[in-house]
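Narrative progress, year one. The postdoctoral researcher (J.K.) led the effort to move from monomer predictions toward full complexes, under supervision of the PI. The following entry was the first complex the group processed end to end, covering 1170 residues in total.
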Amino acid sequence: MLSRYFPILRWGRSYSASLFADDALAAVIVTIMLIPQSLAYAMIAGLPPEVGLYASMTPLIAYAVFGTSNTLAVGPVAVVSLMTASAVGRIVETGGPEYIAAAAVLAVITGLILLVLGLARLGFLANFLSHPIIAGFITASGILIAASQMKHILGISAHGENLLAILQSLASHVAQTNPITLVIGAASILFLFLTRSYLKKLLRAVGLKERLAAAIAKAGPLLAVIGATAVVAAFSLDAKGVAIVGDIPRGLPPLGMPRFDAGLWSELAGAAFLIAIIGYVESVSVAQTLAAKRRERIDLDQELIGLGTSNLAAGVSGGFPVTGGFARSVVNFDAGARTPAAGAFTSLGIALAALFLTPLLYYLPQATLAATIIVAVLSLVNIRIIRETWAYSKSDFTAMAITIGGVFFFGVETGVVAGVAMSILLLLYRASRPHSAIVGQVPGTEHFRNIKRHDVVTSPSVVSLRMDGNLFFANARVLEDRLLGLAADSPAVKHIVLMCSAVNEIDTSALESLEAINERLKDAGVTFHLSEVKGPVMDRLKRTHFLDHLTGRVFLSQYEAMHALDPETFFLPNGSPLAMDDQTA
Amino acid sequence: MLSRYFPILRWGRSYSASLFADDALAAVIVTIMLIPQSLAYAMIAGLPPEVGLYASMTPLIAYAVFGTSNTLAVGPVAVVSLMTASAVGRIVETGGPEYIAAAAVLAVITGLILLVLGLARLGFLANFLSHPIIAGFITASGILIAASQMKHILGISAHGENLLAILQSLASHVAQTNPITLVIGAASILFLFLTRSYLKKLLRAVGLKERLAAAIAKAGPLLAVIGATAVVAAFSLDAKGVAIVGDIPRGLPPLGMPRFDAGLWSELAGAAFLIAIIGYVESVSVAQTLAAKRRERIDLDQELIGLGTSNLAAGVSGGFPVTGGFARSVVNFDAGARTPAAGAFTSLGIALAALFLTPLLYYLPQATLAATIIVAVLSLVNIRIIRETWAYSKSDFTAMAITIGGVFFFGVETGVVAGVAMSILLLLYRASRPHSAIVGQVPGTEHFRNIKRHDVVTSPSVVSLRMDGNLFFANARVLEDRLLGLAADSPAVKHIVLMCSAVNEIDTSALESLEAINERLKDAGVTFHLSEVKGPVMDRLKRTHFLDHLTGRVFLSQYEAMHALDPETFFLPNGSPLAMDDQTA
């Protein structure tokens, strides 16, 4: 029981030196990748670089205790950083100590929401976000982030919450471009693209092993950071207008609960909910992908608790919202991480960096950080999936297009909310159109099949409808319409049989609809029967008055029903007994 | 085609003298019932009495042209009047000309919304409202209306948008009760209850025919109005503080489009949407009930257009939102209405009343009108359904309780919105838990059944999951979890077969989940197969790359799949050929 909520109790007991060696190696590689990422993602969020480092320490320890994925690398990620900037920037002026404090509050609220969802086992809420909406959201966010970072490449100032505003702002300031900054930025982008595409091949060609070559290739951003910092320092380019990271306070994060301010909390609650859900969905899909490769399992509800405590930890240690990152987790996996302890070791690496490396980052040009962001987020942009969705399903494409348009023209939150609203509409639309079929007898057998697809025997006086799904409020009205339509369209009909072989649940709405159908058919002189009602459904119906009022009968099998109501039409050639196996699905 | 949008073209062509005679008689009886009702419902809406008459003329003509129910009686109804008071009262001070104008605007917006929903065939949106929520809403609204009318019975002033506020306001003013008003109000309530319960029996006892006795019994409110008016006029009770209806302007409604005011329109849009949906749901359920009794059909989408044009008509002729009323429609049906023309004739009756009868209503005491309201709405209160819902389904009861609590403590709109939000949550919850079963072979047959319910043959290396429903975004993640769980839990598993006999649709999310499952199972060394994929589903899958990447095969039948993957476990005793009829559902 305790180990369900503290997964560390399970894997921690059998922790060994061999596991430690693997986890520690993975932690070193992930740390190298995470140092520039944590600075860059803080920049996306509009926060000073040290906040990125803070968000990469305690959350990783919390996840090691509460998380269920052996390879998920928790920390700042691009999309959640963008959402943080959007949420906090709407309330507080970007940059000041109030902004930093509000970002920590946002992490605390996000953490609490995830924790409550996890303890209440409400992870199904994440199903609100369909794949096309997530894909559209990630792609649009990637483009939005890339656009928002262009100001650092050009060395100008530009603002805007949506793509249009950002592009306008860039266009109106483009004349003030700093040429040296632009050269550094462009060179960084070029270098990163080249290392990303060719460094691994090159290293393999010179004889390095596959895994080592892959790991070093992932250090491209670190190499760019070192090179650019050295150049700026050597030529004092900061004096020529190149924006640099500057002083990063040395030391470990400040601990302490952010001050409670009811107004601020309620203003941030909506954004925190979106960050919680999107962060969770992203994280879980990475974790599931990696777990499956080793036939491991993750616990969807416990993941909510793992990410919830991670965000709480980020909030009480001067950080901002975090989640499981895709690229970093893959590197962690490839580097051989075997337990969540790898994450805890990574946090140790970041702590050492925060204590000893920050002075070395003084001359790091912001343009190079922006370049690492642009190259990273452009890999999120997935045009293929947009094209494939268009080919496969126009309604899913519509939801995707609404999400992308929402992000571009109104900002990230509006985009997600519009997409989710569209998802719910689609869900309701689908649920309101249950599949059903009028069935007839396959000649000479006890089988009853769709009259539109099979040559079957039918009767003018007995009609049977098979509902292929549960009966509940979303389709109760359609059920009424279809069954009453059977009576209205064929005046000769005397009996209607509802075949319930695929019905696992009848809710109150559907029960009342069945009662209404029964009454209305009675008024129309038609008897209403049920067949193949499953055991649990029947048990619940017995607790109501429905069966007392039912004008017809409840038959165990469809053949039994149809034979009893019209023996001259529905019969078996040699009067063979009913097969046992057709009475239950 | 034209007659689809103008149903009058269908029934109008064969209109005859005999139909006219029946419709006209029904119209006379409904008119007698509608005169006091229209005044009373205007009072609930906080509008002067003539507005109630206006709302009972043009809307009925519009419905006669566009509606599809032969017996639905459109006009002002209690719940929609309450919602009007709540919506308009929040924006404009009750009573003045601006209030009246805003109520007409509300009707126009409601009409436009219904019209758009109808033309776009979006009637499924009404499924948002489950039966328990509607039942809870109607019951709570009935109690709220009854409480709000108590001030007229007592002759005091009281206000409040929710039950608590109304009761507090009543309590603080109860000392100012006007005794004569109270006597008139109490006597009216008593008279109405008695006529409602016993008048029909009495009339039958003295020899009247069933139908005539029933019709006269429905005139109880009119008799109360006549009697109370006569008493007040005879003793000049208005001079003793009894509030009377007073001057009702004579004549036909003023025609004209309400002035467009973007601010007002957007403030009323949300309320108009709720009124549209609730009015539609109420109206359709009455119309379906009555249509079924005569084996007639109504067209759910065209009903949106019928009610939409009715509300538009109400809005441009000085009225307020209308819908099909339950009690009046039943009277119309019982009185023998045979076509929508009966409604048009009723509007003629109301027009005559507006032209010639209004002076006679001068002394009508408001207490008597309030009494007719209280007696009418208390019949909406349905405690039995609350109890039965509790017994049948705790989750449905929760949705109902939230709706009732919302209406009582926060007002009608909050109540409905909270109920609908709860419905959506329940829908999503259910959709996220699709029924599925691991299946095994019924020994010696080609049938595969749930291993939990049947003694079936299973194999350690081949596992098959049957999904009982469509695969789409709400359950895609659960599908991943279940299938990957099968591989993770049993290391001996080499093949997983997804049995798709109940799958009629696979959306983009589920397709991507299937692709992810296929990839992840491949990583885990497990081959992934499908069986019994339906024709249309297969056609769409062929438009994607999924089948190219699928590690396993797509089998026509479940037996074929299992036999091919583990012939030593799954076979038929005498090698009998596959039965044709098990390959398609």
